[in-house]
Amino acid sequence: MNKLDGMNSNEYKGISRWWRMAGGLSMNMALGTLYGWSVFVAPLESRFGWKRAETSMVFTIAVIAFALSFVLAGRIQDRYGPLGCSLAGGILVSLGFYLCSFTTSLNYLYLCFGVIGGLGNGFGYATPIPVMAKWFPDQRGLAIGLAVGGYGAGSAIFGPLAQLKLIPAYGLPATFQILGLIFLVMTMAGAFLLRNPPVGYAPVGWTPAAAQNAAAARQFTPGEMLKTRTFWLMWSAYALGCSAGLMVISQLVPFAKSVGVAAGALSTMTLVVGAFGNASGRILSGWMSDRLGRINVLRTMIGICVIAMPALYAAGSTVVLLYAAVFVVYWCYGTQLSVNGVAASDFWGTKNAGINYGILFTAWGVAGIIGPRIGGVLYDRYHNYQAAFYTASALAAVALLCELGAKRPEHA
Hints:
- The chain is 82% helix and 0% strand.
- By secondary structure, it is mainly alpha-helical.
- It folds into two domains: 16-200, Up-down Bundle (Growth Hormone, Chain: A); 220-406, Up-down Bundle (Growth Hormone, Chain: A), CATH 1.20.1250.20.
- The longest helix has 31 residues, at 140-170.
- Helix 11 runs antiparallel to helix 14 (319-348) and helix 14 packs antiparallel against helix 15 (353-382).
- The chain is built from 16 helices and no strands.
């Protein structure tokens, strides 16, 4: 007799929902290699003689394509379910990596990694958050944190793998092909595991609190969400807070070198520490938000970011302090990616969670333009990163003020 035969349907669904979680993790670990882009910069510049300003545009294009396609993908996911979006995202991101192996020009690289890879990220990332929100109403923060934590962890695994093993052993073109095939397997497995629960699903033994029942009754349309003051405060905080984090992400290796941290193992370790900080912030801050409240956790972590930015600059070449500060900054950044996703479902309902969070997520796309520009422009002007880090701290302070004014919306 099958051990599931004696269980009621809710108990069976309660077990199967962890397979949905595994699907979200597999999908996001592949997509998260976007954050490992910097490991490909030096080999590409060495191979083709391109300048840093030219190669840095690849990341910017990918971020813009990611953020814009996320809105469309969210609408498709809400209307037709997660399978189509997941398959499209997995195929596009894998194809983008594979095609990069044939790179001979910047425009071709912009198209493959920037546009195709960015679109793949948008369609792939659009599905785990609303799916986890529906399967885990009892642990929504932890579940979404775990799912998107895979995105933060992906660069910690595949970045060093590419930099330290694949590129030295097989060369850059073959590395892109190998990663593209690995990502295809991971994303296809994830896509077929990501499914919405049946209508009316609830975990066994879970009774929603009165506030959650009231929130579930208010399924905001995108237009209604845009009329709430809370949306605009959270959008502004999201954009400015992530601008601070993306300034560091885009400049971490150059900053480490500028303060005397040697290239090689130490600089790679800086990326790994940051990636684990990013993943930890997504997972543990999501779990904390289940207990302390979404806005409270966002306020706390953005407040810490205000202090952590100048602290990271002050750490300089003291490796232990540098690693500690990098971990904290990335943690604060990761918090925003997971807790804002949870808050969107809590505040405006799960029915339109894909499109509603997609609209909120455009703030991250804006941050992807502002953050790297702050680092690059201010470094070129002053030939050090002090102004960039203090500007990032100021942006985080404004983000904190916005979060202090935000609260759960009562009506449209």
